[in-house]
Fold this protein.
Amino acid sequence: MRVEVDLNRSYGVPSLAAFARLARVDNVISGTVTATRPLVTPPADHVETVLTISVERQRKKGAPATAEVREQGGVVTVEQVRSSYEGKLGRELTAAELAETVAYRVNGVVPARVGDRVLVVVADDASVRKPGAYVVLARLVRADATGAGAASAPFTWPGEPPNPAWEREVDGEALLR
């Protein structure tokens, strides 16, 4: 509880740039999502997703070129969260129902997909003891831009920013320095 309260208080800083400089932030990474893996934690069927990111740029020198970043929410099959549905419905689900997918969104954030160009502000993942394992504190995406200027296209929020006063478009270069 204390960690969540402290983190929520951190989102009160005036900008994403100020947030990215807080002590709890371990790295800022720009790259492409190459894989996603859902994690469902019983008994409450808490849904998270581990994103594998091919790192193109990062603020932390010497960090691995591939990062595993865990974030809340994601896309799972109903079978992975069946206890939540069967408990509410009071019956067993059919094979067709179990095969359906459902997207869990936290604060309206659209789950990441393979191929997304992302900018993530991360903290160390204390539950995983290996270099390049992080927890997302903020994730932004870059629209599919091509040609000259694609690398300088701004990143935007895949939902609402944690602080409504923060900018809607973000220059990734400024956060990577």
